[in-house]
Design a protein that fits this description.
single chain; disordered N terminus; mainly beta; seven-stranded mixed barrel; about 5% helix
Length: about 190
């Protein structure tokens, strides 16, 4: 297996936490979520989450999380070369650094530069420090492990129905039902 490769985060060092303190650690992950909410008129959409852990800062855990990011890929194994940007928090993506709580960032840019099986190499930049964490922008480049795709749809009462609906949004070849799914959603992981 190829070694995990990470570059230190770079960014503006204004404020309390310094960007140079944010050194990506191993153990990052990426996952998908197919979700709808008919009650508020939200149609089904497949979005992606990227989690980059950093080495602890003063003994405390720190992660960069990018949630709800749509990528125009045709399959979960074809993400290399795809990129997406969100210019405002929750429009559509939410990016935050977890350090004693989630600290939001306004803008996010994510590019998947490589894919090796279920691992992807992601370059991400978050900017616009909404909550005063410190760095105005943070850029990371890290390899992440696939953590599966969750399906939480109002019209998918079984794992089989959930997988069939997921196939409308991404190639499901190579995915198997997680026998012990986290939470209330159906969860699919890479088969062996």
């Amino acid at each position: 297996m190829r070694a995990m490769w990470h570059t230190p985060a770079v960014g503006d060092d204004e404020g309390g936490l310094k960007a140079r303190q944010l050194v990506p650690a191993t153990g990052g992950s990426w996952s998908g979520l197919l979700f709808d909410n008919a009650a508020v008129g939200l149609p089904p959409a497949l979005t992606w989450t990227f989690r980059v852990p950093f080495e602890p800062v003063d003994g405390e855990p720190v992660t960069l999380d990018v949630d709800w990011l749509p990528l125009p890929a045709t399959g979960w194994r074809q993400l290399a070369g795809h990129a997406a940007t969100s210019d405002a928090f929750a429009e559509p993506a939410e990016s935050s650094v977890y350090y004693f709580g989630h600290r939001r960032y306004e803008r996010v840019e994510v590019r998947v530069s490589e894919q090796d099986g279920s691992r992807i190499r992601v370059a991400a930049t978050v900017s616009g420090d909404i909550d005063g964490l410190g760095p105005e922008s943070i850029t990371v480049d890290a390899w992440l492990e696939f953590a599966g795709i969750s399906v939480q749809l109002g019209d998918a009462p079984s794992a089989e129905a959930a997988l069939a609906r997921l196939a409308e949004f991404t190639d499901v070849d190579g995915l198997v039902t997680d026998p012990d799914p986290p939470g209330i959603a159906f969860h699919f992981v890479a088969g062996s």
